[in-house]
Amino acid sequence: MSVRPLEDRVLVKPLEPETKTASGIFLPETSKERPMQGKVVATGPGKLLDNGQRTKPSVKKGDTVVFGKYSGTEVEIKNISHLIIRESELLGVIEG
């Protein structure tokens, strides 16, 4: 099964939250925050403009993106949690 996002939506697999702090302290499951970074798995064809043209998505498969803590809609694909997010809700692309 595969999912192909529609319009300007992006399918993102959130990165795993940190399990220990920089000083080496392991975090319990209850104190972990919801991830705000993820890898782009698939993109839609782009937003349809009023003139019938489509805008090209500014992210591509494999990009690491930053998004808001409560952005998108959670979906489960092959027992793995993913998010479907509008491209406009993405905050940035991590480079390097």
Any overview of this molecule?
By secondary structure, the protein is mostly beta strands. It is built from no helices and six strands. It has strands at residues 9-14, 37-43, 64-67, 73-77, 80-86, 90-94. It has a six-stranded antiparallel sheet with strand order 4-5-1-2-3-6, with no helix packed on it. A hairpin with a 2-residue loop joins strand 4 and strand 5 (80-86). The chain is elongated and about 55 Å long.
Provide the low-confidence segments as ranges: none
Largest sheet: spatial strand order: 4-5-1-2-3-6
Q: Mean pLDDT, rounded to whole units? A: 85
Helix content: under 10%
Helix and strand element order: EEEEEE
CATH topological fold name: 10 Kd Chaperonin, Protein Cpn10, Chain O
Produce the secondary structure layout.
Layout: E1 9-14, E2 37-43, E3 64-67, E4 73-77, E5 80-86, E6 90-94
Antiparallel strand pairs: 1-2, 1-5, 2-3, 3-6, 4-5
What are its keywords?
96 residues, mainly beta, 10 Kd Chaperonin, Protein Cpn10, Chain O, six-stranded antiparallel β-sheet, 6 strands, elongated
